[in-house]
Structures are given as structure tokens and as C-alpha cells.
């Protein structure tokens, strides 16, 4: 049944984002003759039957109201139906759609749609496309008009074509299994005519194409026809994806549609035309660079995820405010006015945070706000320290090795133990599986150590939280533990300030491995780091790290469409000011990027470093090892007896951001 937030939908599967912000006029034209589609049955998309309850048709006014609400929010972010729809569902139970009646035809599989060429574009090509070809130096308030003009010119190439209309399942169904219907796709014939309005809310006239095709085999054709009739066969153009073919004009139209989708999905901000901006195309270039930095891993995966979550939250809050205001019938009451202001200020705060993200001078140094806002407790008033035993049941054998004057406190919950700690305390953890939100709030100088095999003391992250282990303590130590990251987007360990020691630990990552922020210090010995989406160890400018006898492998598992541009691997250093790194007897292997990458934010330093590396070597010769050592010394990088091998792109590399 459709209830609650919808699971994320992949970019390839469906989009219901509509950029309509300035009116509802769009492109509409009468339908024409059908286009032959006999060759489309080959290489078709998978199709299957689903269990669902068709939504009763309500007439044009009701359908358009529901339609407008669906356009406000992408399917991947939908929070559920409005209260009115839920009341109607309670009053009128619809039978589930399981199999078609005998006289109903089963939908054929959908043909493949055009693959977007934008996926293979380099950032310079994207910048040239948007800034030079589409926007052409226009102001923010004219961006809508520029996008409309660009799209209209492309639509003139062909007035009739086949496409797949992908829309929100809530337009068709009241009850359905969410996982089984990420979108409803229908093969349609599209008819366009020259632009009638300056608005970017394009609409086109569509009709069901032959053969009747959908991603849902048992969707009734009369349901599709009925809904299209109520919509007067007019649907948002950005919900239609041209069918793949040999026609170059169709490929150009598909590219134009993707250009417009990407602009409104990622580059456009609702505040753009409300604020003065002297050079709007420069701002768009910064946002393209931000997107590319996220895609190629220049910005660590967990930080990128935080930005995406903030952007999604901003869009959701804006929709909430619009819906709340629309439900106020007359003059707002005092309570309603207060609620509007609360929602508005939430949006303003998120807007400010997103603007900070877009400032390249700030973004080059990573996160802009502290993760830990808790104050240090310091030592207890009576000056004593306590050893906290974390186990379901405490026995005498557990404490036999402790001195007789040791003050003990037993907990069956690691979170409670950490919450009870003052500086100087020790937390002793016995075998078991634990979770602790307070690991992300380490402010006091404590020791957290496991007793037994490190594989048996498993601490897993809480998936609903951004962070796992975060420290700003002067000196905190973790020993003999397994840290298993599940769902959190931040680095598995983040050292904000102070010094952290990891000794004999296993770190199984999902986000970035270990992040050491500017001014912080880290020592890792006899540990294993694996599975990070970015680098296993990420060193920010001015940080300090000592790595001894560690294994760092199978990192840089970035979920990006362009892995070829990512250099992250075992260890990544961001310089100016240079971090200090000492590596001894480490084994760095089987990482998708380089074993060690040194990221230079300026072209000049890269030129100097490359000149030093290549000094005295002919073109194509191997770089002089002594020159590399000299460069590493200048970067405060000391490496002794490390084994760096089998990394996808090489062992060590200096790269520019």
C-alpha cells in the first residue's frame, strides 16, 4: 500500500519534476496520425504484472488539482497523499488490479528510450553548453525564457515523435505495492507545435501509441485513456522521454529535454530570480563544478550526501509551505501566521546553508559547520576516574585483571556508558553487537577498548544518523574494535579537532573512510580499512596523521557515472597548507584509484611539482624516484617500508582539483 515516504527512484527510471513556476500555459497541439512502431518490440524494457487498485476518475477539475500537487514533488520525495484523498480512499474501497479481464489486451514491453549524451560530457563541455549556448550571459530572471527558447528551437526539428510518458503512480492508482511500481510508463505519440508562451512549463499533446505498451503488463487501457481524456491529452513535456532510434533529430530533442531537466533539478534555485546577481552564468558554472565534484569524488561521498540531503530537505520544506498556505481559506489566524513564519524561516536557514555550499572558496576545505555542539565535561569534581564495563551481565572474571581500587560501573548499553563518561574514564566493551549515537559526540578524553577478538566486538552505525564516530576531544583512543558503517553518509570516523588514536581496529566503511579535518591529528596502528566510497583516509589541509602497520584496501567504491575521473584510493591528501603524513609498514592495495593521491588546488603548484618529478627524464621515461621523494618531503610526507600495489590507477600521484 502506498503510505509514508516513497523509496528513492533512480534517475533512469522516472522523473516527475516540473519547473513550472510562472503559469500553466504550454505547448499543445492536436493529435495526428500514428507513427509505425513495428520495429520497437525488439530490445524492449522489462514488463510485469502488479497488484494495484485503480484510482477512480473524478473529472477534469479534481484531476488537475491532484496533478498540480504531484508536480510539486518528485516521486522519489513524495510524502504520501493529501488528507482529502485518504478520506476518499476510506469511503470507497477499490478492488485490487491483479489480472486483466479476458477482453482486455495486455500491455507490450516499453521500447528503450534515448540515452542521454550528458552522462559522457566533461565539465568544460557542460559549462559551455549551459553558459554559452543556452543561457548566453542572461540574468537570473531571464533564465526561464532562455531555457524555453532553447527547448522550443529543438522541438521544431520534428513535430511528431514517439516517447515514453513516465509519471507518478498516484495519478493512476490508490493502492499499490510501492516497490513494484516506481513509475507508470506509457508509450505515447507526441505532437508539438511552435511555442505559445515564454513559460518553461511546457506541455504537449499525447495519445496512446500502437502497440499499447507499458512497464505494467496488466494496466487497463481504458484507465489510461480515461486519465488522458481528463487531462485533455496534455502532459508535461519533461515527463516524456523520446524513444531510441536512428533519427538524429530525435536524439537532439532527447538531449534538449535532459538539458532542461538537469537545469531545474540541480542548477536552478527558487531564490535565483528574487536576488540580484551580476553574473548569473558564473553562478551556474559554480553549480556545475559542484555537481561534477560530487560525481567524480573530489568532494568526499559523505559530504556530498549531506549536501544532497540538505537540498532535498529545502525542496520538501518549500512544498510544505506552499501547501500550507494554499489550505488557508480566508485571513490567516494568529496560529496560522506563526506557523507560516516558522516554515518560512526553516526555508531561509536551509537556503543560507546551500549558498555556503556553492561558495567554492569555502567548499574547497570541506564541511562548514561542526558536527559536535556538545561541551566538554572535563574531569569529575572529586577527581576520580571510572571504568565502565559494557556487557549484558558482569562477572568477576571480567574484572579480575583490574586493580582493587578501580571504580567500576556496569552498563548493558554502550550509549549509556558513553553518556556517563568524564575525561580520564575508560570504557571496556565485551563481545557482542552494539550501537551508540554518543560515538558521534566524543568531546572528553576517554579510552574505548574491546576485550577479546576485535572481530567479536562489533559496533554498527545507526542508519538514520549522518555521522558514526566523530571526535573533538584533545585525546581519545579506540582499541580492539570493529566499526561497521551502515547507512550513515559521513566518514566512518571524523576527527574534527584534537587527536584520535585507532589501534587494532577494523573499519568497514560505506561512506568515506577516516576524515581528518584541518588542524586535527590522527594515529592509526595495526588496523584495517576497507569498503570506503571515497578514500580510505582523507587528510584535509593542515591536518596531521601517522599510519603504521595498517591494511587499506578495496576503497574508492564510488557510486558515480564517471569513475574514470576519480583519483581517490587508499590515502588522499589535500594541500595548501599541506597536511603532515608519516606512513610506515602499511599495505595499501586493490583500491580503485591511486594508492596515495595528493590533491593540489592550484595549477601553479602542480606545474612546479610535475617539473620536479620529470626533471632529467626524457619524454616517456619513468619518473625519477629521488625527485618524487623530494616532492614528498616538501609536502611533509614521510614514507618508509610501505607496500603499495595492485591499485587500479597506480601507486602515488599528484593531481589538481
Computed structural class: alpha/beta
- End-to-end separation: 47 Å
Oligomer: single chain
Q: In what order do the strands lie side by side in the largest sheet?
A: 9-8-10-12-15-18-21-24-27-30
The coarse overall form would be elongated
Q: How many individual helices?
A: 14
Would you tell me the overall average pLDDT?
76
> What does the largest sheet look like?
10 strands, parallel
According to DSSP, the number of beta strands is: 32
Strand % is: 15-25%
Rg for CA atoms: 29 Å
Helical residue percent?
A: 25-40%
Poorly predicted regions: 1-44, 61-94, 361-369, 559-565, 602-624
Organism: Ursus maritimus (Polar bear)
Biased composition (Low complexity): 42-56
Protein name: Testicular spindle-associated protein SHCBP1L
Subcellular location: Cytoplasm, Cytoskeleton, Spindle
Amino acid at each position: 500500500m502506498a503510505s509514508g515516504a516513497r523509496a528513492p527512484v533512480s534517475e533512469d527510471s522516472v522523473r516527475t519534476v516540473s519547473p513550472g513556476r510562472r503559469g500553466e500555459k504550454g505547448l499543445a497541439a492536436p493529435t495526428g496520425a500514428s507513427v509505425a512502431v513495428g520495429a520497437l518490440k525488439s530490445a524492449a524494457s522489462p514488463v510485469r504484472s502488479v497488484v494495484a487498485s485503480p484510482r477512480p476518475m473524478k473529472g477534469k477539475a479534481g484531476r488537475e488539482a491532484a496533478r498540480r500537487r504531484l508536480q510539486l514533488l518528485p516521486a522519489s520525495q513524495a510524502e504520501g497523499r493529501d488528507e482529502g484523498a485518504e478520506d476518499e480512499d476510506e469511503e470507497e474501497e477499490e478492488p485490487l488490479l491483479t489480472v486483466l479481464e479476458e477482453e482486455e489486451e495486455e500491455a507490450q514491453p516499453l521500447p528503450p528510450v534515448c540515452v542521454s549524451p550528458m552522462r559522457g560530457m566533461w565539465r568544460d563541455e557542460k559549462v559551455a553548453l549551459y553558459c554559452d549556448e543556452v543561457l548566453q550571459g542572461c540574468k537570473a530572471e531571464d533564465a526561464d525564457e532562455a531555457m524555453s527558447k532553447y527547448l522550443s528551437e529543438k522541438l521544431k526539428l520534428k513535430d511528431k515523435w514517439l516517447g515514453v510518458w513516465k509519471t507518478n503512480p498516484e495519478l493512476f492508482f490508490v493502492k499499490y505495492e510501492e516497490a513494484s511500481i516506481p513509475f507508470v510508463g506509457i508509450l505515447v505519440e507526441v505532437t508539438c507545435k511552435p511555442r505559445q508562451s515564454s513559460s518553461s512549463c511546457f506541455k504537449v499533446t499525447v495519445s496512446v501509441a500502437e502497440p499499447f505498451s507499458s512497464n505494467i503488463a496488466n494496466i487497463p487501457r481504458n484507465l489510461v485513456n480515461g486519465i488522458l481524456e481528463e487531462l485533455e491529452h496534455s502532459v508535461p513535456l519533461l515527463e516524456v522521454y523520446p524513444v531510441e532510434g536512428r533519427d538524429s533529430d530525435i536524439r537532439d530533442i532527447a538531449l534538449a529535454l535532459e538539458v532542461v531537466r538537469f537545469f531545474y533539478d540541480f542548477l536552478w534555485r527558487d531564490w535565483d530570480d528574487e536576488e540580484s546577481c551580476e553574473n548569473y552564468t558564473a553562478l551556474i558554472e559554480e553549480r556545475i563544478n559542484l555537481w561534477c565534484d560530487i560525481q567524480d569524488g573530489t568532494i568526499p561521498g559523505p559530504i556530498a550526501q549531506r549536501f544532497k540531503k540538505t537540498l532535498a530537505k529545502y525542496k520538501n520544506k518549500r512544498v510544505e509551505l506552499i501547501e500550507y498556505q494554499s489550505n488557508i481559506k480566508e485571513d490567516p489566524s494568529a496560529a496560522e501566521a506563526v506557523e507560516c513564519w516558522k516554515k518560512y524561516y526553516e526555508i531561509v536557514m536551509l537556503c543560507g546553508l546551500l549558498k555556503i555550499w556553492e561558495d567554492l572558496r569555502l567548499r574547497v576545505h570541506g564541511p562548514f559547520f561542526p558536527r559536535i555542539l556538545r561541551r566538554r565535561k572535563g574531569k569529575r569534581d572529586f577527581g576520580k576516574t571510572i571504568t565502565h564495563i559494557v556487557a549484558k551481565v558482569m562477572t568477576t572474571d571480567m574484572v579480575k585483571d583490574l586493580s582493587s581500587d578501580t571504580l567500576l560501573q556496569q552498563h548493558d548499553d554502550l550509549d549509556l556508558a558513553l553518556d556517563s563518561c568524564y575525561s580520564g574514564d575508560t570504557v571496556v566493551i565485551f563481545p557482542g553487537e552494539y550501537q551508540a549515537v554518543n560515538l558521534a559526540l566524543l568531546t572528553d578524553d576517554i579510552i574505548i577498548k574491546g576485550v577479546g577478538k576485535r572481530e567479536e566486538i562489533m559496533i554498527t552505525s545507526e542508519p538514520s544518523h549522518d555521522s558514526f564516530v566523530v571526535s573533538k576531544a584533545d585525546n581519545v583512543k579506540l582499541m580492539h574494535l570493529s566499526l561497521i558503517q551502515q547507512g550513515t553518509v559521513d566518514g566512518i570516523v571524523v576527527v574534527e579537532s584534537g587527536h584520535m588514536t585507532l589501534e587494532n581496529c577494523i573499519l568497514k566503511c560505506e561512506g568515506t573512510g577516516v576524515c581528518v579535518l584541518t588542524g586535527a591529528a590522527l594515529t592509526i596502528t595495526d588496523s584495517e580499512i576497507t569498503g570506503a566510497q571515497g578514500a580510505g583516509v582523507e587528510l584535509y589541509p593542515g591536518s596531521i596523521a601517522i599510519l603504521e602497520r595498517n591494511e587499506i584496501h578495496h576503497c574508492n567504491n564510488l557510486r558515480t557515472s564517471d569513475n574514470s575521473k576519480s583519483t581517490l584510493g587508499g590515502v588522499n591528501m589535500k594541500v595548501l597548507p599541506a597536511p603532515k603524513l608519516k606512513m610506515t609498514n602499511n599495505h595499501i592495495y586493490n583500491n580503485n584509484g591511486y594508492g596515495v593521491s595528493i590533491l593540489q588546488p592550484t595549477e601553479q603548484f602542480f606545474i612546479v611539482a610535475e617539473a620536479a618529478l620529470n626533471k632529467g627524464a626524457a619524454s616517456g621515461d619513468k619518473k625519477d624516484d629521488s625527485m618524487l621523494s623530494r616532492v614528498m618531503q616538501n609536502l611533509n610526507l614521510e614514507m618508509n617500508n610501505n607496500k603499495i600495489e595492485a591499485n587500479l590507477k597506480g601507486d602515488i600521484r599528484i593531481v589538481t582539483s
